Amino acid sequence: MGFLFARSSGYSFVALALLACVLLAPCQAAKAGLSIKFYAKTCPGVDTIVRSVVAQAVAKEPRMGASIIRLFFHDCFVNGCDASILLDDTLTFTGEKNAGANINSVRGYEVIDAIKSQVEAACKGVVSCADIVALASRDAVNLLGGPTWNVQLGRKDSRTASGTAANANLPGPASSGASLVAAFAGKGLSAREMTALSGAHTVGRARCLMFRGRIYGEANINATFAAALRQTCPQSGGGDGNLAPFDDQTPDAFDNAYFKNLVAQRGLLHSDQELFNGGSQDALVRKYAGNAGMFAGDFAKAMVKMGGLMPAAGTPTEVRLNCRKVN
């Protein structure tokens, strides 16, 4: 079974074509020994539990959907998809939660805790926190109107975390196009996959601190867009935590508006607009802006591939009973 599409997402007309794509596409997840049937006998209701909790969280606060997607990205980019981002600091290591790219940025830990609690009640000690994050991010995308896909499962949870690795591996809001390509290439992801995955910024918000430099100091920005943002993000300082949506047209809908905004020079972060700034990704951004189905298919396949990033061989792992601490 391949991609399915959410109601009113605008993608259903390409469902059959994308089904063929996902069935034929090779992925790192399969190579890593993961399987969509991993819990078929040991915890068959895990998908239902995860989706139910995520649906409640997104209904209460749509922004939470974007936060859960971000949680998955920021976990997988640091030593693989191992739920290391969920670990609280201990006396023996400084974890990832308070790394520069995560503090005041990554949210949704309590949603994962709620899922884990219900999953443990149904199937104690079986389902990893890393798999819960992967399933939750898929459901968050779909519940916001985007595509869905079969999640490869069977990950284990790391017994340690590294704030240093998080600071070294996670691209920042001031990243150049070249550095983004390089960062994703370092994870085995192509420039096309990087651009598709960046489309996750079609939902969510960013703090004023992350885009102040762009709205006051860059030329490749729509003047009306910049002026509106300046109302809540003063140049002189203050208001660092004030939020603005990545996509001010449909801020809580997972669609291809992010790419339309880039073409119109309405990218919120410097790193966003770098994807459409006279560089190698301009043509692809235009294609995604004009073809929602192409973006949906590429995004889903790239999420499966990113979900196949594994910890280094020899990394101590387990299935944590509490996602915030080792057993």
TrEMBL record:
<dbReference type="GO" id="GO:0042744">
    <property type="term" value="P:hydrogen peroxide catabolic process"/>
</dbReference>
<keyword id="KW-0964">Secreted</keyword>
<keyword id="KW-1015">Disulfide bond</keyword>
<dbReference type="InterPro" id="IPR010255">
    <property type="entry name" value="Haem_peroxidase_sf"/>
</dbReference>
<feature type="binding site">
    <location>
        <position position="84"/>
    </location>
    <ligand>
        <name>Ca(2+) 1</name>
    </ligand>
</feature>
<feature type="disulfide bond">
    <location>
        <begin position="76"/>
        <end position="81"/>
    </location>
</feature>
<keyword id="KW-0376">Hydrogen peroxide</keyword>
<feature type="disulfide bond">
    <location>
        <begin position="43"/>
        <end position="123"/>
    </location>
</feature>
<dbReference type="GO" id="GO:0005576">
    <property type="term" value="C:extracellular region"/>
</dbReference>
<feature type="binding site">
    <location>
        <position position="255"/>
    </location>
    <ligand>
        <name>Ca(2+) 2</name>
    </ligand>
</feature>
<feature type="domain" description="Plant heme peroxidase family profile">
    <location>
        <begin position="33"/>
        <end position="327"/>
    </location>
</feature>
<feature type="binding site">
    <location>
        <position position="82"/>
    </location>
    <ligand>
        <name>Ca(2+) 1</name>
    </ligand>
</feature>
<protein>
    <recommendedName>
        <fullName>Peroxidase</fullName>
        <ecNumber>1.11.1.7</ecNumber>
    </recommendedName>
</protein>
<keyword id="KW-0732">Signal</keyword>
<feature type="binding site">
    <location>
        <position position="250"/>
    </location>
    <ligand>
        <name>Ca(2+) 2</name>
    </ligand>
</feature>
<dbReference type="GO" id="GO:0004601">
    <property type="term" value="F:peroxidase activity"/>
</dbReference>
<feature type="binding site">
    <location>
        <position position="75"/>
    </location>
    <ligand>
        <name>Ca(2+) 1</name>
    </ligand>
</feature>
<feature type="binding site">
    <location>
        <position position="80"/>
    </location>
    <ligand>
        <name>Ca(2+) 1</name>
    </ligand>
</feature>
<keyword id="KW-0349">Heme</keyword>
<feature type="disulfide bond">
    <location>
        <begin position="129"/>
        <end position="323"/>
    </location>
</feature>
<dbReference type="InterPro" id="IPR002016">
    <property type="entry name" value="Haem_peroxidase"/>
</dbReference>
<feature type="binding site" description="axial binding residue">
    <location>
        <position position="201"/>
    </location>
    <ligand>
        <name>heme b</name>
    </ligand>
</feature>
<dbReference type="GO" id="GO:0046872">
    <property type="term" value="F:metal ion binding"/>
</dbReference>
<feature type="disulfide bond">
    <location>
        <begin position="208"/>
        <end position="233"/>
    </location>
</feature>
<feature type="site" description="Transition state stabilizer">
    <location>
        <position position="70"/>
    </location>
</feature>
<comment type="similarity">
    <text>Belongs to the peroxidase family. Classical plant (class III) peroxidase subfamily.</text>
</comment>
<dbReference type="GO" id="GO:0009505">
    <property type="term" value="C:plant-type cell wall"/>
</dbReference>
<dbReference type="InterPro" id="IPR019794">
    <property type="entry name" value="Peroxidases_AS"/>
</dbReference>
<dbReference type="GO" id="GO:0140825">
    <property type="term" value="F:lactoperoxidase activity"/>
</dbReference>
<dbReference type="InterPro" id="IPR019793">
    <property type="entry name" value="Peroxidases_heam-ligand_BS"/>
</dbReference>
<keyword id="KW-0479">Metal-binding</keyword>
<dbReference type="GO" id="GO:0020037">
    <property type="term" value="F:heme binding"/>
</dbReference>
<dbReference type="InterPro" id="IPR000823">
    <property type="entry name" value="Peroxidase_pln"/>
</dbReference>
<keyword id="KW-0575">Peroxidase</keyword>
<comment type="similarity">
    <text>Belongs to the peroxidase family. Ascorbate peroxidase subfamily.</text>
</comment>
<keyword id="KW-0106">Calcium</keyword>
<keyword id="KW-0325">Glycoprotein</keyword>
<keyword id="KW-0873">Pyrrolidone carboxylic acid</keyword>
<feature type="binding site">
    <location>
        <position position="78"/>
    </location>
    <ligand>
        <name>Ca(2+) 1</name>
    </ligand>
</feature>
<feature type="binding site">
    <location>
        <position position="171"/>
    </location>
    <ligand>
        <name>substrate</name>
    </ligand>
</feature>
<keyword id="KW-0560">Oxidoreductase</keyword>
<feature type="binding site">
    <location>
        <position position="96"/>
    </location>
    <ligand>
        <name>Ca(2+) 1</name>
    </ligand>
</feature>
